[in-house]
Amino acid sequence: MPHLFLNLGSELGAPERRQPVVISTMLTWVYLAAAICTASAFLRYQGAIPNGDIVPDPCRIGDWPGVGHFSSNGAGPRNEFGLDFAAAGHVWTQSLCQKDSDRDGRTNGQELGDPTCRWTPTSTISLAAPTTHPGICEPIGSSACAWQAFLC
């Protein structure tokens, strides 16, 4: 019968205990599988919106990979664009494109470089560069964006 337990702690003078290595290993695999699934969903969502992989970070120079969340890494609560994107079935639609999720006066399409709302994940049309973040009202801290209470 294969050994499923390790003798841990006896080298340190602690009482002999048998700790199940199998449980620890299984938990590690479950955690890794969950992380991989989360990362693949995250990349799929980036590919489901125009310029999804280069959405500008409203707080500093660079990109905001977690476009649907208040956290740039895609964790935690969703911003208004993330809620609207989920309500649209995680699909870039004409309605989602024309909506101003963050209420900053620019449509989601304008902010993401698809002002005519013609982009699809399989299209070859040229996109403009994304100008601002569709889920975070900008300029941050302005009276027009006070409703969002977002801070960098």
Automatic annotation (TrEMBL):
Domain called Temptin Cys/Cys disulfide: residue spans: 40-136
Listed transmembrane segments: 20-43
PANTHER family, A to Z: EF-HAND DOMAIN-CONTAINING PROTEIN
Record keyword Transmembrane helix present: yes
Naturally occurring in which organism (per UniProt): Lymnaea stagnalis (Great pond snail)
Key words, A-Z: Membrane, Transmembrane, Transmembrane helix
Protein name, per record: Temptin Cys/Cys disulfide domain-containing protein
Highest taxon of the lineage: Eukaryota
InterPro entries: S-S_Temptin, Temptin-like
